[in-house]
Amino acid sequence: MSNALELRRHTMARVALGRVGVAQPTAAHLAFQAAHAQARDAVWSEAALIGDVTVRSQARDRREYLLRPDLGRKLAEGIVLPAAPGALVFVVADGLCATGVAAQAPAVIAAARPLLGMAIGPVVVALQARVALGDAIGEAMGAAAVAVLIGERPGLSAQDSLGLYLTWAPRIGRSDAERNCISNIRPGGLSALEAAQKLAWLLAAAQGLGATGVALKDDMPATPLLGP
Amino acid sequence: MPFAHALGGTRYNFDNLATLLARATPLRSGDALAGLAAESAAERVAAQYALADLPLGAFLNEAVIPYEDDDVTRLIIDGHDRAAFARVSHLTVGGLRDFLLAAEDVSGLGLTAEMVAAVAKIMRVSDLIAVGAKARVVTRFRNTLGLRGTLSIRLQPNHPTDDARGVAASVLDGLLLGAGDACIGVNPATDNIETVQRLLEMLDMVRGRFDIPTQCCVLSHITTTMVALERGSPVDLVFQSIGGTQGVNESFGVSLALLAEAHDAARARHPGANVMYFETGQGSALSANAHRGVDQQTIECRAYAVAGRYAPLLVNSVVGFIGPEYLYDGKQILRAGLEDHMCGKLLGLPMGVDVCYTNHAEADQDDMDALLTCLAVAGVNYIMGVPGADDVMLAYQSTSFHDGLFARAALGKTAAPEFEAWMARMGLGGDAIPEALSPALIGL
Predict the structure, then answer these.
(1) What pLDDT, in 10s, does the model give residues B379-427?
(2) CA B133 and chain centroid, separation
(3) Is the pTM of this model over 0.80?
(4) B73, B89, B123 — which closes off a domain?
(5) Domain range spanning residue B179?
(6) B438 — contact with chain A (CB < 8 Å)?
(7) CB contact under 8 A, B324 and A66
(8) Hey, is B8 helix, strand or coil?
């Protein structure tokens, strides 16, 4: 007879939980409740994001943000942004998890700065923001490209994951097919340095191509450009 | 054609059938996002009155999306069974609700997708359960699904990197807890053909070594599955996400002709079996900006019309997966799940439901327990079984293997008969793993 607990060696899934009647034992039940509570809190969290300028979308609060993704893609009225012609602009956006962004974004930007072969504009903090808000920000600043660092939807196993979306020649109305994405940036996932290296590779390719998105095939060599 | 109804001294006007259907729909965030929802509770009920008075024949005269523009509309109109419809053709939408609640047999009525959508809009949750429970749809592959008194479970052993041992460990865990009779179905993390083939071979190996009377599926894009089929991989079911407009299907990279081609290829491999597996969900068309001014519940029913063309083994709405901008909270997810189940069944589909939610929706396990219990009472053909309800690849919460055991126990249901007999033969039910299901037999 084998012990079901051995199944746990092979997967991070919640296997071999045991059973009480037809239900999960108390320990497994509460572990799930704890993970869900953390994920829920992460969605509704506010965190101090670090940047040079702060903007908001037209979504006035978190509830409206969740219900109206269209408003999260539009800049609030009356926002004046500094010009950054020809530069790459980093947008640090709360997305669906502000705590994850606060934790990871500064390290990604710091790691990227020495690797990027173009001017870098002021870092813009964007609140109640969807990815496409970066198009409005980049267009207003005259940026050559925008890199939106945004909190990904928290799961039960990871509540601090960051996504990075690179858009060349940002303009209002760009589609998601015109961006390149680096996802799962977090401790235990893609490191800040790996993400920065990937961004540098994508940005160089975008400069050469004059475009991001499906036109820019991600065939970056698997070996890191720098050591770990 | 315009419609109107007066309520409380106010006259409410509705420009056309699509608008009337949208305004009559119980509140959900996706219709509000699309700008289609009623602007007040009173307007919604006025629309429900006007809809209830509408003769069913009106749905054959006015398409919600023009016939010329949309192949799903053409499929619905061209495929309409007027002989079957004769039994209810004299009814209004309100009369149909009464008929469905009073009748014993509600199958084979020749209703179109839009008629079924309409009647659901004037039903309460208890109506959706009662009528859903009357419509039985039985399908067959290596076992028999949908029989009265059974509740089947798709074993969903996903893994973030498609690691074969990781998937196999979740499969075994699910089998030990009575899951897997609907199918053993993996969502691959990538649509890479070699990965898909590797998973197909692993699942077939597990099924063979344990001699399980079930069918396997890797839920890759249909074009990837067709390549695997051509290369001789052990493909049982052909999976595809589908929607209720031509535009949303294009956004999924499929056409009706492609679905037919895949169905024929899989059917040649498995003569006589139901070989297709479809997933749907309210809101997918709006998400693809292909909703054409039609509310999400009506479009969902149109997706069922598409599914019905290809004699599927399994169809399920992934009801809470899409997010709060389409179904905001547990209340909206509950209603939508029960609508989807009843509407699919009335259209002759073997309906399951992925009872699920994401972490940005206003929902939790209590909401899922309520939906699961309602669906089990309504006779849902199958639900999902995910280790501990936590899908570690798709990052959402569905029903656990334990939830399946709960629903079967609470309502006195069993697995599919062939699978139930297999479980007894294997000696399942104790704490230890029976020798016949030793992990070593499948390389663990």
Answers:
(1) 999 999 999 999 999 999 999 999 999 999 999 999 999 999 999 999 9
(2) 15
(3) yes
(4) B123
(5) 139-442
(6) yes
(7) yes
(8) coil
| Residue from B291, B298, B300, B367 nearest B328 by CA | B367
Task: Please indicate if any CB of chain A lies within 8 Å of the CB of B160.
Answer: yes
Local structure of residue B69 (DSSP, 8 states) = T
Please name the member of A11, A21, A24 whose beta carbon is closest to the beta carbon of B400. Answer: A24
Q: What is the CATH number of the domain that holds B14?
A: 1.10.220.70
Count of structural domains within chain B: 2
Token output for B136: 């039985």
Give the domain CATH number at A144: 3.40.50.11240
State whether B390 and A24 contact (CB < 8 Å). Answer: no
Domain count for chain A, please give it.
1
> Is the CB of B383 inside 8 Å of chain A's CB atoms?
no
**DSSP per position, B129-143:** HHHHHH----EESSS
Name the B residues in 56-85 with CB < 8 Å from any A CB: none
Q: Of A2, A67, A155, which is closest to B33 when you measure between CB atoms?
A: A67
Q: What pLDDT digit, counting tens, does each position of B51-98 carry?
A: 999 999 999 999 999 999 999 999 999 999 999 999 999 999 999 999
Nearest CA in chain A to B441: A2
- Complex ipTM value: 0.95
CB A28 within 8 A of CB A18: yes
Tokens 């009369």, located at residue: B95
* CB neighbourhood size of A20 (10 A): 12
Bridge partner list, B384: B154
SS3 A90: strand
Q: For residue B365, what is the nearest residue in chain A, using CA coordinates?
A: A33
Contact list, B32 vs chain A (CB under 8 Å): 67
What angle do helix axes B17-24 and B41-52 make, rounded to 10 degrees? 120
Contacts (Cβ under 8 Å, ≥6 apart) of B183: B154, B155, B214, B215, B216, B217, B236, B237, B277, B313, B314
